[in-house]
Fold this sequence. Notes:
With about 160 residues, this protein is α+β, with helices and mostly antiparallel strands. It has one domain (about 1-160): CATH 2.40.50.90. It contains five helices and eight strands. It has helices at about 1-15, 60-70, 100-105, 125-140, 150-160, and strands at about 20-30, 35, 45-50, 50, 75-85, 90-95, 100, 110-115. A hairpin with a 2-residue loop joins strand 6 and strand 7. The longest helix is centred in the C-terminal third of the chain and has 16 residues, at about 125-140. It is globular, with a radius of gyration of 16 Å. The chain starts with a helix and ends with a helix.
Amino acid sequence: MIWKCLVVTLILIQSAYAEVLSGRVVGIVDGDTITVLDSTNTQHKIRLGGIDAPERKQAFGNVSKKSLSDMVFNQQVDVEWHKEDRYGRKVGKVLLNDEDINFEQIKRGMAWFYKKYKSELVQEDRITYVQAQQEAEANQVGLWIDAYPIPPWDFRKLKRAE
């Protein structure tokens, strides 16, 4: 129980101290990764935290990328980020006029809630992301139109095994 309290406290502290990066979206890599140009003309790769979008060679991969592009390309965004991943990308929440773009990708059926990294999210985001996925699934929105969509983490494992 004490361990759970420490983890929750760490997450709350981590989210309270998330850094904010502001800039214009100059590139869309896929449905969960963008490039942001800040005021010093420095480019930053951003991985949308808490979600995992279909891979480019996977069903809905290009549709997911287009969805993200339609929302944020050439737009001024704020990124509340809390870590860099092993590829050097900042991981966080992308906000466009205070709208949570990570949430929107899930709601549109263009990404999964990435449960593997749920502990990195504040509780409110975990709850809304799960609910958005459940609603998209129930309404067969986006990738959920497929009877058995393959999660990207399973798709990547299959590709590595080939």
